[in-house]
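Example record used in the benchmark description.
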Amino acid sequence: MEERLSHEAFIRKAIVSLRKEGFKGIHSVYSGFNEAFKKYFEGADPVEATNALARDGKINIRPVKGGVMLYLPEDAPGASSADQALKKMGLG
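Model output (structure tokens):
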């Protein structure tokens, strides 16, 4: 019998596998993530699971039209814009 992925492992795998070339995140609805999550976890709530992981700092969520974008923490836009600006200026 196949061992099931944890919510975290499933979501991380989805972000990496479902993102389109040139993009670092996935749209929770348009990528098919929400439906895939519900099917894999037999009706579990993807919003609850992603919010819990975001609270723990394991993923980043950005609200967008029609849902949210899901990112790995290291790929989230604007995650550390001040650090990026200092680095570009040669000061960080």
